[in-house]
Design a protein that fits this description.
Helix content: 25-40%
Number of helices: 9
Structural class: alpha/beta
Distance between the termini: 38 Å
Radius of gyration: 19 Å
CATH superfamily: NAD(P)-binding Rossmann-like Domain
Strand order of the largest sheet: 3-2-1-4-5-7-12
Number of strands: 15
Largest sheet: 7 strands, parallel
Shape: globular
CATH architecture: 3-Layer(aba) Sandwich
Number of domains: 1
Oligomer: single chain
């Protein structure tokens, strides 16, 4: 199998590490891409090829995918920064328009996997959502992800399958709950913290991607753990486990969103067994 990972951030890098012990078993030729040359030293030990690639640029994307039978798109805005809707559109929509234009020149590409986000569901007032729930993004960023999914779905066909993995919020090495929430200790925050959140460990994201590749998954699949958790419980348990002062909630009707609870029934039906079925502290 010839695999190209377009985008080696948190998820792409975790997958590359997981694949190291299985590359000979999978007879895998692995190409990793980055937008920054200074990452070559980090990535070269993990891959057969490392390439600079701006996925919205036809020349560099074609070079990255020239031998790929499977392409994984783990896209994100350049650098560790927040971007506006236009920045998201450049990252996602422009890249997939570029991919679509190149497909006639990539006849060997048979499987495209894209890591999207459960944010496409928007606020469901605490109700359960599944892959069949209509998307209803709450902001422009989510709307861009909906558009990017729709664009990819137009190129799905029996000889070239598209798999869209909608990820929950990510945690794992380098993004532990304590790192995310310890600065909130002792603070007063608006609301009651009753909004549901949906999480997934990065090891399970990488594991699900491996299953998607080897078992040729297609369609939309939610990648979350088994237990949605209210934000108040998540923060309180995190702070308690670190011996830190709890957060103080002050009721505020402006923060009454209940979020959503995301089902992972299809993930289980496909046979994937979660390594981290719930958040641990």
């Amino acid at each position: 199998m010839n695999l190209t990972i377009v985008g080696c951030g948190f998820v792409g890098l975790a997958l590359a590490h997981q694949l190291q012990g299985e590359r000979s078993h999978l007879t895998l030729t692995l190409t990793l891409t980055t937008t920054r040359e200074e990452r070559f030293a980090e990535l070269e030990p993990l891959a057969d090829h490392v390439r600079i690639c701006d996925a919205s640029d036809a020349i560099s994307l074609k070079q990255a995918l020239c031998d790929a039978e499977v392409a994984l798109f783990c896209l994100g805005p350049k650098g560790d920064r927040q971007v506006d809707e236009d920045g998201y559109r450049n990252t996602f929509i422009d890249s997939f328009h570029c991919l679509t234009s190149l497909l006639p020149q990539l006849p060997q590409l048979r499987h495209i996997i894209y890591t999207s986000s459960c944010s496409v569901y928007g606020d469901a007032q605490g109700e359960w959502v599944s892959e069949s729930t209509p998307t209803n993004p709450s902001n422009g960023h989510g709307a861009v992800l909906v558009d990017s999914e729709a664009l990819l779905q137009t190129i799905d066909q029996p000889t070239r399958r598209v798999c869209i993995l909608r990820l929950g919020a990510l945690h794992g090495p380098g993004r532990e709950f304590k790192d995310r929430f310890q600065n909130l200790a002792g603070q007063t925050r608006p609301g009651r913290g009753q909004q549901f959140t949906n999480w997934v460990h990065v090891d399970d994201v990488a594991g699900a991607i491996k299953a998607a590749m080897t078992e040729k998954w297609s369609g939309v699949i939610n990648i979350v753990n088994d237990q949605p958790i209210r934000i108040a419980e998540l923060i309180d348990r995190t702070l308690s486990s670190e011996g830190l002062e709890p957060i103080r909630w002050v009721d505020d009707p402006k923060t009454a969103s209940s979020g959503r609870r995301v089902r992972n029934t299809r993930l289980h039906a496909l046979g994937y067994v979660l390594k981290h079925p719930k958040a641990t502290f």
